[in-house]
Specification:
With 150 residues, the chain is mainly alpha-helical. The protein has helices at residues 2-31, 34-74, 92-108, 113-125, 129-143.
Amino acid sequence: MRAKLSYAVTAAVLVFYFLLVGSRGVLLIQTGTLLTVTFGVAVLILPVIGLWFLWKNTQFVRKANALAAELDAEGGLPVDELKRLPSGRIDRDSADEVFARRRAETEAAPDDWRTWFRLAVAYHDARDTPRARKAMQRAIALHDGRTVEA
């Protein structure tokens, strides 16, 4: 719940910032000179890109959470079996061991979104965020019935 709240606060702050920057871009355009119109358009592009990125991120999180809820209802969520250091951080060897099992499961059933979801969690535990995101995107695509490129 804390993560959802912090995400919502961050998103709200970003939307406020985008609106503020966008209003400045409109003011520049309204000035009407070639230079200010050019700057105004350039300033407006940034909030548009930011809003698009925020929207895509929010959709990704919602879909990943929906998959987690579905997998939880099936009793298929991965169990946290990782060893932890005294600091609370995940032991690297433990994460590698779990990752190897998850990768083998995914290789055995490459068209099952559940194995890709669990592989994404293993990547996340191993602190490989880009691959975790790609694995989760693949899980979402497979769940939605979309074709996935290798």
